[in-house]
Every structure is written in structure tokens, then in C-alpha cells.
Amino acid sequence: MSFLRVFSNRAMSQAAQVLSKEVTIKKDGCIITAYILRDDGTFPNNERTPLMVYKKAIPLPQDDPASGFERVFARNSWGGGWRGEVYDYHHYHSTGHEALGVFQGKALLLLGGDSGVQVDVSSGDLLVIPAGVAHKCLHSSSDFSVVGSYPDGQTVDMNYGRSGERPGTVRNIEKVSKPSHDPVFGVDGPLTTIWT
Questions:
Q1: What's the CA gap between 41 and 19, in Å, rounded?
Q2: Sign of CA dihedral 87, 170, 69, 57
């Protein structure tokens, strides 16, 4: 039985929109927590593929901290990188998964819509957001910045939970392929095991 199937069966008994956050993995000093987020009626989220939060994912160089994530992402087949912030409004991508590496500052992010999970992030942390999962920044330090990246050449669209986006976005989400590599740990990393 796969990890995700066991994880999902245990989580399905909970009534909340966040199905579970029971699974925590430790690898090379990094603490990784997986959250399965279900459709809340506005945002499709992703009941099959968990949101992954990596605390202290990588040490960052002092002279150019963003380059630490950019090098690790490139080495692990995550590209299309950009530097910036996380929008302060709900949005999601239906055509690709997204990695956000925090290289500066700290923030409180909301993932999964208004009833989703709030996650504190700071420099060195990483989120891997599955296609369909809504995300926004609730508040941040003035220097908060991330590197964004997408696996295996995927590109993303922008969706906002508006009427008319479905059923097209749901069909798109179902077609998005699993990444070949974990954005930090590569081909044998936790993401490639958990995302079945």
C-alpha cells in the first residue's frame, strides 16, 4: 500500500478542509510536513497530491541567498525560475506544480483557501505546491522574497477561484504529471516517494 493511500485513508475521517497534517519526515536536517487539502467549493486544491513544507530546506549563501535555491532547483530539473513575492490574494495554477524557496525574510502564508492551512515560513524554507492548491500571503516582513520554480519544463496558468474556471481547471490538474525529481533531494527525495 502506498504512503499516500495510507495517509489519505487516515485523513479522510476528518471533516475539516485540511484533511491531515500528521505526516512529518526528517531528512538531512530538514523537517518536511505534508498536508492534503480538499476542494473547498471555490478552489479545487488537490486531494491526491499533498502540499509539502520543507523547514530549513537548504543553507543559503550570504552573498546571494536566492542563488542557493536556483542552483538546487536547476540541479533537480526544476526550472522557469523567478524571484519575487507571494501575491496577497488567493490564486492557483492548474497546469503545473510550483516550488517556492524563501531566500529572505519571513511570512505567514495561507494555502488551500480561507479554510486552509496557515504556514509560517522564513529564509531557507521551501513549499512545494501541487497544481490546484490555492495560496496567498497573509502578511510578511518587508524583505520577504522567494524563488519560484516549476518541474520538468512545466508552465503555469493563473486562476482565482472565479466562476467559469471549472471544469477546465479540474481537467488540467488531473493531467499534470508528477515531477521526476524532488526539488531539493533529487530523484530519491521524499516528494518522489510521497507524490504517487
A1: 15
A2: positive
